[in-house]
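Take a protein:
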Amino acid sequence: MSTYFCFSDEAGYYKQDMSNRQLRSHPFYVRVTLMMNSNEWKTLNDEFRKLKEEYNLPLAKELKWSYLWLLRKFKNKEIPDDHEIKFLDNFNYHTLVEFVEKSLMLINRLKYKKIIVTYTRNSKNYKIKEKEMLKFHLQEHLQRIQMELQFNRENLAVLFIDPINNEKNEFLRKIYFDLYNNGDFIKNYNCIKDSLNIENSHHSVGIQITDYIAGVFLSFLKSSKREKNYFQGMQMFFNYIYPNLRRVLNGNVIGYGIREVPKDDEERQWCMKKLKELESVTL
């Protein structure tokens, strides 16, 4: 039997009937899961902590992907004492981007790694309530984790997610438990532990790295040949995320490692085309 740790985090924002201003700020909602063999977790944990020490980042603090953009907003300005990124006051933005990239490099050192990404384009205005959309995303991840491991009934996946808020945390726990007990088109989630684990991201190396994956994937979604603001994130996507996406034998990731939510053939074609176009720019 092999045990797998699956770390999952979200990026962006979703709610039903978003305003134009909200859509400009949050054009996509993303959920990411990083699957790894549990026997490699200690090495990943040790290497990540060493990396933090190398960059003089406090072990008890988390450098979130979103903090990089906040830091740019405070360029040449003093960060208020009560601001969440005050601890980054004396750090150089480019140095922190380098730290994130080196953190993502750690994924390539894992013998087993599979990344699953789901995303929603908010401008599609799908008329789906927020909790239902969260459910659909979680369900897609559970299905793919089960399908990835079900070749051996003795395999076991343990899922860890970053908390959202108390209400949504309990909602996700309930959805998870209902799927585990009742199934959907997958009748038996027998390779997944029966309870969802919610742990603070600043306590979890796996979720911190997954936060970077989600941020980098958002950069890919927002990027274009002309848009240079997301080019560095797009490069990191193709160097460290794209090679490790879950895929089928012919190498296809769409529908396997990347999944639009809800199912949308037009959106799927857009993503396939974008992958081909940007791959030639970065590789």
In short: The chain is about 45% helix and 15% strand. Residues 3-55+97-282 form a domain with the Nucleotidyltransferase; domain 5 fold (CATH 3.30.420.10). The longest strand covers residues 3-12.
